[in-house]
């Protein structure tokens, strides 16, 4: 079998065979196929697409390119949740304790933020001493005993995705739906969960800009689950405005604490209740959505969800005194208020602009080697649909940077009346 024949087949719009996909993944991971040939195949996939079966085989081969964690000795069905990313998306940190407090086992590997999207690991590391690195055995033990663990991806899992993702980033093939789906699903399947819930976001602050494209991606990932005998479900949610009020690492942790104490933003709370009810049904903790929803709401109200978050943070060596007293978190040197320019109703808060502004304030990174200011970001005071009066507070910028005049102007333009 020759790589040029595989490239030619996909270039001509043919479906690749299981043998061809296996040949490509195995030899590329082992450095027997050069980047220029892999790039040619990725571009052919971008232009010609893949069937759901092809994408499932690609996902399986990527999953099997490294270690695959076996969590079967942990009692019950293990659940995982993945978001395609957005601005102010701290759902996993609220949702995990909620479902774990109801008896589910959440086994999650997460990533860091890049560009305008925040990373779950960065948010967790804004808690002093929090450890995102655990061995396979430590991870399993924590999921079994605490009910949840969220760690960084093990280097031995899915090496094919690491190589292919890096190549996609520099060959203009990032936005291929089959390549997005196989990247997400291969990592999720390698980490060993039985059930996966996908939050596919669309809008200005999301990777998928339209609801239609979000549905295509969700359908494909669900089909991959069917081909590989996994319970994979998805929901489509809007990222036209930031989720909740806080954007930025320790700012979002403070909002997580508020939400787990049943004082959180309505949009974040409702999303977590909805997602959690689906996950509890997947885990067979409850027979139907409504029973799961009611149990989650009860544990928000009685404090069990918050207690589970404390237990989780403590298990990963985080300083729980910050969870009990969020005023201990570092506060930025400058708190810059942004006021409304006129009376009106807020029609839009552009999530992409807010996400980029938070990054420029120090709350995100342009490249993975950038250092994050954990206290930097933006806290909104208004949401879409709210009425506003001239000179009323719209949001507050948090930063240690001395000159952010351009960011201030960008944030003002993000609010459409």
From TrEMBL:
Coiled coil: none annotated. Pfam families: Glycos_trans_3N, Glycos_transf_3, PYNP_C. It comes from the Bacteria. One of its GO terms (molecular function) is thymidine phosphorylase activity. Its EC number is 2.4.2.2. The keyword Cell wall biogenesis/degradation does not apply. Residues 345-416 form the Pyrimidine nucleoside phosphorylase C-terminal domain. Gene3D superfamilies: Nucleoside phosphorylase/phosphoribosyltransferase catalytic domain (3.40.1030.10), Pyrimidine nucleoside phosphorylase-like, C-terminal domain (3.90.1170.30), Transferase, Pyrimidine Nucleoside Phosphorylase, Chain C (1.20.970.10). It catalyses: 2'-deoxyuridine + phosphate = 2-deoxy-alpha-D-ribose 1-phosphate + uracil; uridine + phosphate = alpha-D-ribose 1-phosphate + uracil; thymidine + phosphate = 2-deoxy-alpha-D-ribose 1-phosphate + thymine. Its cofactor is K(+). InterPro entries: Glycosyl_Trfase_fam3, Glycosyl_Trfase_fam3_N_dom, Glycosyl_Trfase_fam3_N_dom_sf, Nuc_phospho_transferase, PYNP-like_C_sf, PYNP_C, Pyrmidine_PPas_bac/euk, Pyrmidine_PPase_CS. The keyword Glycosyltransferase applies. One of its GO terms (cellular component) is cytosol. SMART domains: PYNP_C. It is an enzyme of class 2 (transferase). Keywords: Glycosyltransferase, Transferase. SUPFAM superfamilies: Nucleoside phosphorylase/phosphoribosyltransferase catalytic domain (SSF52418), Nucleoside phosphorylase/phosphoribosyltransferase N-terminal domain (SSF47648), Pyrimidine nucleoside phosphorylase C-terminal domain (SSF54680). GO terms for biological process: pyrimidine nucleobase metabolic process; pyrimidine nucleoside metabolic process. NCBIfam families: PRK05820.1 (NF004490), Y_phosphoryl (TIGR02644). Catalyzes phosphorolysis of the pyrimidine nucleosides uridine, thymidine and 2'-deoxyuridine with the formation of the corresponding pyrimidine base and ribose-1-phosphate. Belongs to the thymidine/pyrimidine-nucleoside phosphorylase family. Homodimer. This is Pyrimidine-nucleoside phosphorylase. It comes from Candidatus Onthovivens merdipullorum.
């Amino acid at each position: 079998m020759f790589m040029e024949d595989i490239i030619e087949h996909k270039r001509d719009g043919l479906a690749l065979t299981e043998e061809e996909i296996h040949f490509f993944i195995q030899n590329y991971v082992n450095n027997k196929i050069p980047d220029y040939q892999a790039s040619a195949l990725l571009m052919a996939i971008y232009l010609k697409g893949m069937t759901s079966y092809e994408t499932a085989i690609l996902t399986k081969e990527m999953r099997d390119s490294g270690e695959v964690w076996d969590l079967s000795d942990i009692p019950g069905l293990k659940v995982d949740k993945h978001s395609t990313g957005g601005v102010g998306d701290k759902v996993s940190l609220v949702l995990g304790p909620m479902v774990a407090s109801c008896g589910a086992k959440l086994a999650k590997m997460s990533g860091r933020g890049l560009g305008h999207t925040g990373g779950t690991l960065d948010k967790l590391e804004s808690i002093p001493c929090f450890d995102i690195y655990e061995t396979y055995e430590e991870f399993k033990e924590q999921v079994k005993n605490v009910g949840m663990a969220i760690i960084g991806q093990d280097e031995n899992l899915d090496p094919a995705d690491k190589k292919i993702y890096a190549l996609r980033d520099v060959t203009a093939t990032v936005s291929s739906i089959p390549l997005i789906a196989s990247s997400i699903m291969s990592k999720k399947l390698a980490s060993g969960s039985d059930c996966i819930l996908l939050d596919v976001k669309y809008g200005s602050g999301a990777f998928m800009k339209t609801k239609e494209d979000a549905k295509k991606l969700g359908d494909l990932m669900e089909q991959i689950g069917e081909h590989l005998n996994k319970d994979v479900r998805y929901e489509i949610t809007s990222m036209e405005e930031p989720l909740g009020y806080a954007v930025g690492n320790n700012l979002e942790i403070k909002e997580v604490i508020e939400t787990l104490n049943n004082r959180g933003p309505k949009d974040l709370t409702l999303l977590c209740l909805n997602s959690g009810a689906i996950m509890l049904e997947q885990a067979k903790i409850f027979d139907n959505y409504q029973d799961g929803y009611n149990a989650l709401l009860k544990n928000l109200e009685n404090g069990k969800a918050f207690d589970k978050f404390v237990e989780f943070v403590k298990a990963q060596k985080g300083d729980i005194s910050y969870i009990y007293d969020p005023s201990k978190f570092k506060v930025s040197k400058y708190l810059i208020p942004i006021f409304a320019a006129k009376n009106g109703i807020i029609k839009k808060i552009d999530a992409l602009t807010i996400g980029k502004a938070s990054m420029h304030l120090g709350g995100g990174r342009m490249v993975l080697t950038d250092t994050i200011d954990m206290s930097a970001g933006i806290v909104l005071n208004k949401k879409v649909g709210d009425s506003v009066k001239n000179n009323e507070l719209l949001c507050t910028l948090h930063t240690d940077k001395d000159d952010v005049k351009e960011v201030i102007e960008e944030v003002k333009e993000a609010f459409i009346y």
